[in-house]
Amino acid sequence: MIKRLLVIAALVLVPALARAADPLPDQPRWSLEMKGGFFYPDIDNWETFYGSKRTGSFGGSLAYRIFRHFEAGLGGEYISDRGKGFAPLHSQQAQQAGGSAVFTSSVKYELAPVHAFLLYRGEFYENQMLVPYAGGGWTQMFYREKVENEEEVRGSAAGYHARAGFRLLLDTIDARAANSFYLDYGVQHTYLVVETQYIRAMIEDVTGATVNLGGISYSAGFLFEF
């Protein structure tokens, strides 16, 4: 049964990959992306420690278009927040006074996920205005947490991510600027990018409980193809 399924999968995938390998005319191969947005951590009670359910996220990536619809790349992000209280990864219980938490320490929390990814892009003709995409891959999540007057917690955890979004071609909106960008910097296409991403990278805290360092992010930015 398994062999039969593998044969069927091969019969379906091989023609698809052959079509995908057919390049678009004079297509750019490299892309550079820069983006920023909001990250919603999957850690319980985040709002209690940091005063908000979200924090800022900034990142970028470099990718290579290996086939017509597929590109592979590397990327990274930086996520940080500051708050008052006991750090989530220390798993210490906040003191209570009159029903509200009394926070006595300053906390700085930092994440730096590094990604290796493969994306499928729904681009079927040159200068397509709206290009949807989806993909994912491996993630190594580096973390650092510092509570004032206490020992620093740092390390990393392996995991994965999934992302999806769309790219809006800006070349046709301002053709003169696009042509100048190409002549001056070699950029063939410029896109506005809107994306949603989910990261999962599990660790154990000091109590042995499992914690997901990841979460969901919503971001926007620009992608340059050359």
Question: How are the secondary structure elements laid out?
Answer:
Layout: H1 2-20, E1 30-41, H2 46-50, E2 55-65, E3 70-84, E4 95-97, E5 100-102, E6 106-121, E7 130-147, E8 153-169, H3 175-185, E9 189-200, E10 202-204, E11 210-212, E12 215-225
Antiparallel strand pairs: 1-2, 1-12, 2-3, 3-6, 4-5, 6-7, 7-8, 8-9, 9-12, 10-11
Name the descriptors.
disordered N terminus; two-stranded antiparallel ribbon; alpha+beta; 226 residues; eight-stranded antiparallel β-barrel; 15% helix; elongated
Describe this structure in words.
This protein is of the alpha+beta class and 226 residues long. It has a single domain (30-225), classed as Porin (Beta Barrel). It contains three helices and twelve strands. Strands 1-2-3-6-7-8-9-12 form an eight-stranded antiparallel β-barrel. A two-stranded antiparallel sheet has the order 4-5. Strand 7 (130-147) and strand 8 (153-169) form a beta hairpin. The longest helix is centred in the first third of the chain and has 19 residues, at 2-20. The protein is elongated, with a radius of gyration of 22 Å. Mean pLDDT is 82; it is low at 1-21 and 91-102.
